[in-house]
Amino acid sequence: MNTQKKTILSKSLVLVALSHAITDLSQGALPILLPFLKSAFALSYSQVGLIVLAQNVTSSVIQPVFGYITDRFPLPWLVPAGVLLSGVGMAVTGLAPSYIGLLAIVIITGLGIAAFHPQGAKMIHNTTQANSRGQSMAVFSVGGNLGQACGSVFMMTLLTLPGSINNTLYFCLPALLLAALLWLNLSALSPQTLPQETPKVKKSGATTPIPLAMVSLLLFYIFFRSSIAAGLTTYIPLYFADYLGGSHAYASYLVSGYLLSGVAGTYVGGVLGDKFGRKTIILGSMLLTLPMLLVLPHVTGYWTLPLVLTIGFVYIASFSSTTVLAQEMMPGYEALAASLTIGFSIGLGGLAVTLLGYVADHFGVPSVFTIISVIPVAAAALAFFLPGRLFKPDYLANKQGAL
Question: What is residue 398's predicted lDDT score, i.e. its pLDDT?
């Protein structure tokens, strides 16, 4: 019986992770599409930043609304609905008649992303034992990171074919296919079927106050991290293609390499987080990223690729650890915790992109990388005060009163 249950949960984990990948295809595709949209609509860098902000606000900042609702009322159908809306939205992006129409389409796409993430992350948390939550959340996160990476490759491939930006229509195909698959398997994905320990956690969570100070500290850390991520994915292609005069293809390969290496880093970071503690990974990844970001603007030629790959691996390693840490600090509010860490704080990083757009317009694109390179100092300082013990598994530390 236990073996059969484990198999069902494993299949569910893979399916939810795959749905995460398809949902996030649009997030990886948009940065590659930006230079083409900039040219087609004669946009300024500030207007490009507003497009990124529109997607981030609707896909991320409003996620806590969906998270709060799904903690009160299980809504597993939001998973296939989110996949469908995200894919169809990106499919019609290339057909936008105007800049205002483009912003409206981006907002609709973002709503699909926002609907999917809290419910999907809650499914993962509620069907995983405490000592492997980091690894399971890493698999879920890998799905999203892989989707972003494949989205950039898929978009660049479509843009090189006859039809150019009109080929975004093909993004509806994987979305339609997976939404149908999810709908057929919805009963197996429902978070109402939980492991034996979960009702006890949720029952105790009803009387356990949320540590607002520590949660806020974690959210500020994620805001800094997402500001760097949004800045890199937005301005790497613009810097190497527009400023240095390189090819759009090579710039897209840099972004794809950055995101693909982040896929590996996400999984490794999740596994190491279960073994050495979430705080260890959260702090360590930022400290290791700092010197690499400092040298990035000074590296040219093909040496940029291995550096960007290394940054992606190390920097994104803390992704799943921050989500699981928030869920463990907020028992009974797992969807809300996921929406705050995966959505809200990351979405606020879009504000940074808008500000960086102003910097790029007035001081040049290289100034953007100077700002990005010093943000890890503040993020590492915040990480040092997060709950947990360095080099100690969190589920053990929690039992001993460390969290």
Answer: 53
Query: Whole-angstrom Cα distance, residue 356 to residue 81?
Result: 33
**Helical segments of 160-277, H only:** 172-184, 186-189, 198-205, 212-237, 248-276
Residue 353 sits in which domain range? 2-399
Residue of 280, 269, 226, 260 lying closest to 63 (CA atoms): 226
- The Cα–Cα gap between 54 and 112 comes to 13
- For 218-261, how does the pLDDT look when each residue is reduced to its tens digit (9 = 90+)? 999 998 998 888 888 888 777 776 665 566 677 777 877 887 88
Torsion of CA 89, 92, 97, 103, to 10 degrees: 20
Report the CATH number that the domain containing residue 229 is assigned in CATH: 1.20.1250.20
Report pLDDT for 358.
83
Helix, strand, coil shares of the chain as percentages rounded to 5? 85, 0, 15
Contact between residue 228 and residue 376 where contact means Cβ atoms under 8 Å apart: yes
Based on the structure, what is the number of domains in the chain? 1
Model pLDDT, residue 191: 45
